[in-house]
Amino acid sequence: MSTLGWWRLVYAAFAGFLLFHGFSASENAPNYSFMHNATSAPFLSYYDYIVVGGGTAGCPLAATLSHRANVLLLERGGSPYGDPNITKLVNFGASLSDLSPWSPSQRFISTDGVINSRARVLGGGSCLNAGFYTRASPEYIRQAGWDGRLVNQSYEWVEKLVAFEPHLGHWQSAVRNGLLEVGVVPFNGFTFDHINGTKVGGTIFDEQGNRHTAADLLEYANPRGLTVLLYATVQKILFRFRGRRSRPEAYGVIFRDGSGIEHRAYLKYGFKNEIIISAGALGSPQLLMLSGVGPVAHLRAHNIPVVLDQPLVGQGMCDNPMNAVFVPSPIPVEVSLIEVVGITHFGSYIEAASGETFSASVTTTSRNYGMFSPKIGQLSTVPPKQRTPEAIARSVEYLDNLDQAALQGGFILEKIMGPISTGHLELQTRNPDDNPSVTFNYFQHPLDLQRCVQGIQTIGKIVESESFSKFRYDYMSWPGLVNMTEHSPINLLPRHYNSSIPLETFCRDTVMTIWHYHGGCQVSRVVDPDYKVLGVEALRVIDGSTFNYSPGTNPQATVMMLGRYMGVKILRERLGN
């Protein structure tokens, strides 16, 4: 081997070591020297990579790229650090119910009538969700065409900082035992892996109830290679054509800071430099359209100059429907979000949440009602099209007047895999701060509805199991619980009902979101298997908008993994190995 070849081998090995073992000069959250308010940014700047969206994928992606390149990460929201409504488990739901312009969440309502939220904070959805951490199945990874070894290394890289084993209380233990009793077997213990049967999954909440988010993965970053700008809202991607027959090439972005001042960031000269959109399942297709990449008729209707006619941008939008049943308990239950899951053979995932997440928030004087609160839009007791602000206000007022005993208990929920039903996304305005219009078409496909019915039937068996007996009232029948869930604002003291409703109707009328929506920039439709936008140079999309199906029982682990995974692959391409 020549001397030059030997040094190349050493260089590649050293670069690989840095990628997988971090950088010695890394910093600890929340004291990032590279994080700034966008108002302090120069009006003009140049970088090797510009990542749009500091969310669940964008943070690990930018942290990885920073080791061998100069990276700009643009986040339209603020920092999650120092906000107890984000960082504390007991305050779950408080951020989702905050409708202020500076809230870390931004509410939207799909045309289906289901109230939903999108993240507006560094760390993205990992700052708002119920915290469950679980990997995608091996079959999902094979179908995605990912390198299994690098996938596992990337998951482990994430898990070192943000994933923990929960300590089950009595309620979650009863759900686990009930799942096993009704045949959701085998018991797979505690594992991050996606395996049929019942398991205890991971959580991004530590033993003290503190949330750890994708923003924490910036601890892996090279501080000298990364700039993070907060309250930086990207208006559009800039494109150019180098010749008469050339494809459009992304070369910069225009963004506004919190004061409305316009800034421009450009790619440095270099054919491997790129802009990467990681703005989420709503934000990524929205930004492509605002930049002139999308269905030509739709772009022209909004007076947007067409860069590329791409009719599949915004198509394939999916949201995994969630349905839940409240189970009043005659005894107190612990505070818990999602910790146990039953992965059934028929395509439904059974999970549970319980306890004093229905109590007052640290920063408010009223109850927050946690994961199933009408305050955050989880108004399952009103059919979707009737979930108006007035209906929400009536439900909140009703619940605020209830005795605390009426709120003692928890929910057992089911979420279907997939889903098969799909919808679409369209612009409503040319303002990137405004929500696009989204249709998910919940239960449009009959198999989705069948899976929901089977999931609800399984919940009924769990509630009636011996394992769960101490957490239910003896005189409360399963049909009564179903009726109570449908006809009450959220949860009430037990009542007697003599009639029952078809479970198909229950599924449609009580559908809620579990915030696992995806699609809009799917692989092989909008991006290629390397997440490069088809028909465009120097532009990728890397986030959940590229998914055809939701991975595992909760996508956040895989979205974080994907950011790391693609960061490593991109740097390998850059380094030529």
Automatic annotation (TrEMBL):
Name of this protein: Glucose-methanol-choline oxidoreductase N-terminal domain-containing protein
Annotated source species: Gossypium mustelinum (Cotton)
Binding, FAD: 121, 234, 515-516, 544, 555-556
Pfam family for this entry, one: GMC_oxred_C
InterPro entries in UniProt: FAD/NAD-bd_sf, GMC_Oxidoreductase-Related, GMC_OxRdtase, GMC_OxRdtase_N, GMC_OxRtase_C
Alphabetically ordered keywords of this record: Disulfide bond, FAD, Flavoprotein, Signal
Family of this protein: Belongs to the GMC oxidoreductase family.
Extent of the signal sequence: 1-25
Domain Glucose-methanol-choline oxidoreductase N-terminal: 280-294
GO molecular function: flavin adenine dinucleotide binding; oxidoreductase activity, acting on CH-OH group of donors
SS bond list: 452-507
Family annotation (SUPFAM superfamilies): FAD-linked reductases, C-terminal domain, FAD/NAD(P)-binding domain
Needed co-factor(s): FAD
